[in-house]
Amino acid sequence: MAEQTSLDPHALESARTAIADGRVSLGIEFGSTNIKACLIDEECRPLATGSHAWENQLVDGYWTYALEDAVSGMQAAFADLRVAVTSTYGVSLSGLASLGVSAMMHGYLPFADGELLANFRTWRNTNTGAAAAALTESFGVNIPLRWSIAHLHQAILDGEEHVRQVDFLTTLAGYIHWRLTGRQVLGVGDASGMFPVTGGTAYDAGMVTTFDQLTRAAREAGQPAPAASVVDLLPEILTAGADAGRLSAEGAALLDPTGELQAGALACPPEGDAGTGMVATNAVAPRTGNVSAGTSIFAMVVLEQALGGVHHEIDLVTTPAGDPVAMVHCNNGASELGAWAGIFGEFADALGAGSGTDEVFSALFAAALDAESDAGGLLAYNFLSGEPIAGLEAGRPLFARTPDSSFTLGNFMRAQVYGVFGTLSLGLRVLEAEGVTIETMLAHGGLFKTAGAAQRFLSAAVDAPVAVAATAATGGSWGMAVLAAYRLHAADAAEAGRAVSRLGDYLSNTVFADVELSVATATEAEREGYLAYLQRYEAALPVDAAAAAHLT
After folding, report:
1. pTM for this model (two decimals)
2. The Carbohydrate kinase FGGY C-terminal domain covers which part of the protein (predicted)?
3. Distance between first and last Cα of the chain
4. Disulfide check for 271: which of 102, 131, 138, 219 has CB 3.0–4.6 Å away?
């Protein structure tokens, strides 16, 4: 459903003129459950949003989305956005100054001659354990299960015939950008999760050689393997602000089948949702970090120096500008929490006291804030799928308590929210041991739309203040629109012969200069309570492993 932004009469007229003149930027993000579009003005203020719900499917043993659904969903989100623009501003959206696309990170999209060779395999698949382990050993850096190179190598190990034909690999963001512009490029943040990068600008040459040796050995043994070097299969790497092409006539018709949208908008490099999360929270400088909470949950911490060891809990990626980042990615986020909220909503309906989703979450979070700091001895796991950091190949949502635990609504809900952050804490503990310091953690995603509880509890989990901006719920689509606006800034600076502001400076001085942040810091008692919960959580992980083994 489209959302509208409340503006005073002067701002409303200014926005109307900007839209009519095509001086606006569009960000589109393909999330796990929603495709969102966000339109912003030259000051990066949100003007309107649109969305379309979609869900992954388990097909032939792989979690996937049909690319046809990606395209139709993008069209629906854009159409929803146009409805909001027309109803709010009384003008039609026909021109854009710039646009950008982001999506769920990594995964596997292999092509030959423009045709998809295998169903899109998303980040959620955990079948790549053997390949990830072998590449981690060969490369000397952690290669997570969901990275594109792990999917490709696993397909080789499994003898999948299609790998002989592969001539191009990309991510979902890269694919949509290709359809809109004709350019096979990728932002460095997303690219760094396809294959390790070096210097923030190129795929690591030594690791390219190592992988090519592995594929050559496979071919010599008669196994299916790509004929080309892996570097020739991957998209060109671009950093934020770089020229990533323009919206083509075909792309404009694809995005807006009505034919009203004009071609020619500048396109910024497509990015993953981790990169847009960093932008949406202004967390691109060293000693800053952000947490994005949705179907999955992950933390990004910008590094001052390289880590001392290889850790399976930590992915080494980059910001959209190419600076090194330690990422803690958990497959399971707030979905189980949302399911429980849905149950309580149904109960309210059954009592004749039906409430909207926001009201249900508000009531449940209020109860959680009044609960015991350790959730009264209760325990909740949010594992809808496997969770590598927790050592689980498969998971089951699970709630447990002892006979003497305090079973109240508040404690139950606090346990559920703590459960969202549990695995994240296990990963962040590794960074703490490495001496990585986080001064402030910035958060975004729908979980933080309801003020208070989630923010406070996250502060207890990360042992740092947690800041949330007014744009937190809009999240990645707004962050992508900001990157599109930054591309426009870079083009204008180049045309005028001026230096291009660094991405961090642009965000601080232009985008976030007047943005108010809500900052929450957990009390010492809340921190101690969370640590007690986490100790219980970690000790009982074998219970969830047993549930996964026996509940089929």
Report:
1. 0.87
2. 290-486
3. 36
4. 102
